[in-house]
Design a protein that fits this description.
This protein is mainly α. It has 14 helices and four strands. A two-stranded antiparallel sheet has the order 1-4.
Amino acid sequence: MRFILRAILLLVLLALVLSLPSFATSYYLGLVVKIMIYALFALSLQLLVGCTGLVSLGHSAFFGIAAYFVTLLSPESGAGNMLWLLPGAILAAMAYAVVTGALALRTKGIYFIMVTLAFAQMAYYVFHDTALGGGTDGIYLYFRPEIRLGDWVVLNIDDQFVFYVFTLVCLLLTWLFLALLMRSRFGAALTGIRVNEQRMRAAGFSTFKYKLIAYIIGCGLAGVAGFLYAVKDGYVNPELLAWEQSGLVLLMVILGGMGRLWGAIVGAVALTLLQEVFQSHALFGEFASRWHLTFGLAIIALVAALPQGLAGLPDQWRNRRRPKSISSASAQ
């Protein structure tokens, strides 16, 4: 029964999202696209944090590397071909993940967090302090890539609605891929590593190999989000690789609820909307220029009130009702 209800709810949400372009303005349509990109980004980190127990503070490096890849290698005179730009951006992110993961995964806990942060800052300063990516000014992507076979254009995402649907499809495919992955033997091994890595090693599992593969997959998916972000705005700068970006997506995972894939999506929606609300001059007037203060206070309040995240809110609500039901039954 719960599966049927969830399926119905998912279909209703999907229908609502697909019908949104018919009545939403370009601003709100762009906001939803931004939310979907960050939701995909958060899903890629959820695989590491919530599913494997690897808390990374350097995930923005792979997001930014993919964004720079598509921007640097796209021609200035016309649209590039997505058939090689998208796989290339993913492979660039995964290549950096192979190098950094092989070293970072030899550490644990706070040391793993610091090493991933250090690798991300190294990538940040490569683009920030050199002419490779235009320095602090960043670089522009003048034409959105298209899927092209010879002279035949299969898909052109220059139209806002087409790009909206394309981003939605990427998000759904990412969620489906991770859902199937976590239901496989590989996903069960990742869950076992998160719960008790020593016991998994004693059972004969090569935990380092499993963690490295999960790390590479998560970073590759972050590359998909980086590709979409660069294509959406047509502009990239080194701030995409900054530690604040990693902290933001980590907050999305924590706020949404670690351990649940759809929690990352809920967290991305909530955090992005909170930013938009607190930056609104219509709601907060001049105080909107100090939105970081109210935003931070709201995050503290939400984390304190929802220890299991937004995804755990139904369980938390049921647990609070259960003692009342038991006490009323005892009284009868």
